Amino acid sequence: MKNQVDKVNKSPDADKVFEAIHTVMHLYRAGRSQVFREDERGITHMESRVLDYFAQHPDATLSDLVAHSGRDKAQLTRLIRGLRDKAFLEAREDAQDRRAVRLQLSKEGRALQRQLKKTGSRILEQAVEGLSEKQCSELVALLKIVQGNLKRED
């Protein structure tokens, strides 16, 4: 009788792929967290992600960030409050909807975000050291397939 692979309960290739992805992300976050701990401002990984978002989407709202990130609104509210307290984010009332608050980086926030981006770029360059441009493109293409598979509804 021919051996059949149990695709439901056994997927060693998928396990290996996701273990590798998990390890890469863990090492990347650990590297960034180390840099943030060494910074006198004590920015966390998630705070840096919020700064990145508002650098790319000035005048966005908390609701915009929640929709983009998929994170818990209460968690993001606390992060934003902390970044405002540290004077890295500024808020203003929306002209059309007075209930909405528009957020943007302050001058200090822009300077910090540029510094963190520069540090993050060094870590990213270290991560792809030894890979050719073609290999990087192939890896991105493969990961986009994985993303598409995960977004696909069965």
TrEMBL record:
<dbReference type="Pfam" id="PF12802">
    <property type="entry name" value="MarR_2"/>
</dbReference>
<dbReference type="InterPro" id="IPR036390">
    <property type="entry name" value="WH_DNA-bd_sf"/>
</dbReference>
<protein>
    <submittedName>
        <fullName>MarR family winged helix-turn-helix transcriptional regulator</fullName>
    </submittedName>
</protein>
<dbReference type="InterPro" id="IPR039422">
    <property type="entry name" value="MarR/SlyA-like"/>
</dbReference>
<dbReference type="InterPro" id="IPR000835">
    <property type="entry name" value="HTH_MarR-typ"/>
</dbReference>
<feature type="domain" description="HTH marR-type">
    <location>
        <begin position="14"/>
        <end position="148"/>
    </location>
</feature>
<dbReference type="InterPro" id="IPR036388">
    <property type="entry name" value="WH-like_DNA-bd_sf"/>
</dbReference>
